[in-house]
Specification:
344 residues, 18% strand, binds N-carbamoyl-L-aspartate, TIM Barrel, binds zinc ion, alpha/beta
């Protein structure tokens, strides 16, 4: 049996670092394993300009471990007030690798998001022209739409038309959670891709709701029924390059998760790569981990693949029950679970 597993150093194509003191915990947790990360811009206030992205990038780099070559890939947060010029500036900045569309109210810190995804076509046109990927939180927000249907309705109502009208625009369907999202990606060319989180690969809504409510498995888009989980698993296991690693690691303090109105987000960074490795091994597909984790993402983003490696060791390892992040206590996703792999 394989006792070590060495692969090209991976990147995380969807990550929340937060800000301030929390960076002391979140940046090392990611930079120890990943070379690059697409850094989500949903701070308060959100990262809506190049200047805000530049200073946030410096705050992140200041917390990277010594000798680390970690590179944060910054993202512009789209609002109703975003201008074409801001997108042109983002392209010229050399530090911005995507523009994130949060439908207003869809998730954590999305209040300044876009009120009508069909109302910002000039911005999509400019993104296409500047070759900046559009990163989508693909859910509608209307209260009358059932939360389990919000991804599919977003595809039908907005995404299909955006895809048709801007054929050269690179689009990432972030944290895909439904068979509908998987099929949408599969039915287009390589310019449409999706990130896949460990929780949407390894869990379905029973893991959230059956036998008691489990706030640490609550994230957005919410876990769906098992048939959707299976569609995501099959897409990833098939080796389709349009599906790649994006943890969506999103820390919230323990008391904000274990609350009457708990926050959405799973802090998966402390165990991310061993978690994905465990999933691939459970499906006899360990040989497909490297392309999912280390090749398909940079290929889509038109960046070089990393040239150094990381090593996993086959040794039982229990995910810590708590993690201290900038003076706050977090419960890592899958805390207390024993995995067959740990980082060397
Ligand atoms: C994310 C967060 O907390 O910032 N939460 C989550 O459940 N995934 C936001 C997001 O990506 O939706
Ligand atoms: Zn996210």
């Amino acid at each position: 049996m394989t006792t070590t597993l060495t692969l090209t150093r991976p990147d995380d194509w969807h990550l929340h670092f937060r800000d301030g003191d929390q960076l002391r915990g979140t940046v090392p947790a990611t930079a120890q394993v990943f070379r690059r990360a697409i850094v989500m811009p949903n701070l308060t206030p959100p990262i809506t300009t190049v200047a805000l992205a530049q200073s946030y990038r410096q705050r992140i780099l200041a917390q990277a471990p010594d000798q680390s070559l970690f590179e944060p890939l910054m993202v512009l947060y789209l609002t109703d007030a975003t201008t074409r010029q801001q997108i042109i500036d983002a392209a010229a900045s050399g530090i911005i690798y995507g523009a994130k569309l949060y439908p207003a109210g869809a998730t954590t810190n999305s209040d300044s998001g876009v009120s009508d995804p069909a109302g910002i076509y000039p911005l999509y046109e400019e993104l296409e022209k500047q070759n900046i990927p559009l990163l989508l939180h693909g859910e509608v927000t209307e209260s009358e739409i059932d939360i389990f249907d919000r991804e599919k309705v977003f595809i039908d109502r907005y995404l299909a038309d955006i895809r048709n009208r801007f054929p050269a625009l690179r689009i990432v369907f972030e944290h895909v959670t439904t068979a509908d999202g998987v099929q949408f990606v599969q039915s287009h060319d390589r310019l449409t891709a999706a990130t896949v989180t460990p929780q949407h690969l390894m869990m379905n809504r029973n893991d959230l709701l059956a036998g008691g409510i489990r706030p640490h498995n609550y994230c957005l888009p919410v876990l769906k029924r098992r048939e959707h989980q299976l569609a995501i698993q099959q897409a990833v296991l098939s080796g389709d390059p349009r599906f790649f690693l994006g943890t969506d690691s999103a820390p919230h303090a323990q008391n904000k998760k274990e609350a009457a109105c708990g926050c959405a987000g799973c802090y998966s960074a402390p165990a991310a790569l061993p978690l994905y490795a465990t999933f691939f091994e459970q499906h006899q597909a360990l040989d497909r981990l490297e392309s999912f984790a280390s090749f398909f993402g940079p290929d889509f983003y038109q960046l070089p693949r990393n040239s150094d490696t990381v090593t996993l060791i086959r040794e039982n390892w229990t995910i810590p029950s708590h993690a201290e992040v900038g003076g706050l206590t977090m419960v890592p996703w899958q805390a207390g679970v024993e995995l067959p792999w740990r980082m060397a």
